[in-house]
Design a protein that fits this description.
2 copies of one chain form a homodimer. With 140 residues, the first copy, chain A, is α+β, with helices and mostly antiparallel strands. In chain A, 31% of the residues lie in helices and 28% in strands. Strand 6 (124-137) of chain A pairs antiparallel with strand 6 of chain B, so a sheet runs across the interface. Chain B binds a DNA duplex (25 and 25 nucleotides) through residues 19-25, 41-43, 55-60, 62-63, 81-84.
Chain lengths: 140, 140
DNA sequence: GTGATTGCAAATCTTTTGCACTAAA
DNA sequence: TTTAGTGCAAAAGATTTGCAATCAC
């Protein structure tokens, strides 16, 4: 048996992204990629880290989130001015956005059929198609 | 002939929205609704007003944009964290977003076909579907 | 060791707010 | 008048940055 490496999976993921597996990055990555798909703001993630006694500064959380996004391990979702969500689901998919609570919910890519789409302006290529289905409470 | 009213159209539009046609609001509405469809940030609109020697504060521009949005005369488009665009096109439509320049371009609603869409979460109704097609330069 | 990473606090940027002043009705 | 609207400057958030201290390799 080889020497057991703690959090080997997370560390490999960071390494794969070209990021040094520091204490902070490992902790954040564990929080992010532990459960299923998550939608978190920097503030929320920072709060959770603090809760679990992980000493990280908010600045580092922001930096790490952006680094992971750039590496393709996270996706940034913009639904509201002045607040960014980071999505651990990087598969092709879209979102329900419940405006009253600010909650995001994934819609699997295959559940949405976009038939036609015009050609992008000259000299541009499509990078990504984001669909946000904004919802409110039925009674309103 | 009745007494000619300057900017009667704009004034009526504001009145119709329940907004007093003040000097500032008239000027801003004229900038917004003059040409065809426009996508502006508060900062940009403020800049244009100043350029044309209209004395308005940025705070008033923000207030007015939100009032017009609430009245249904404008639509807010969120594509980037920390910056809101206001769209004078209130018809059903979507957007190309050219990431390098931050430019928005309308896609008429009928040019995009969304076939299937899952039911929203229990107790919620769909308010609006926003589709943002993010583009980059072809060569990148 | 040494170069990448972190923390902290300050800086930045967008947007909102409080309040005395001004203007529309 | 009387009440809504405005400007200004200050406040509030979210995010970024500069730089000395710290850590991974």
């Amino acid at each position: 048996m080889g020497t057991p490496r703690p959090y080997a999976d997370v560390i490999d993921r960071l390494r794969g992204a070209g990021l040094r597996p520091t204490r902070q990055r490992i902790a954040l990555a564990r929080l992010l990629f532990a459960g299923g798909d998550r939608h978190v703001t920097a503030e929320q993630l920072h709060g959770q880290a603090i809760e679990r006694d992980v000493r990280v500064s908010l600045a580092t959380v922001y930096n790490t989130l952006h680094q992971l996004t750039q590496a393709g391990l996270l996706r940034e979702v913009v639904v509201e001015p002045g607040r960014s969500y980071f999505d651990t689901n990087i598969a092709d998919h879209h979102h329900f956005y419940h405006e009253p609570t600010g909650e995001l919910q994934d819609i699997p890519g295959e559940k949405v059929g976009v038939t036609t789409l015009p050609k992008p302006p000259k000299g541009q290529r499509i990078e990504r198609v984001d669909i946000i289905v904004r919802t409110r409470d039925s009674l309103d």
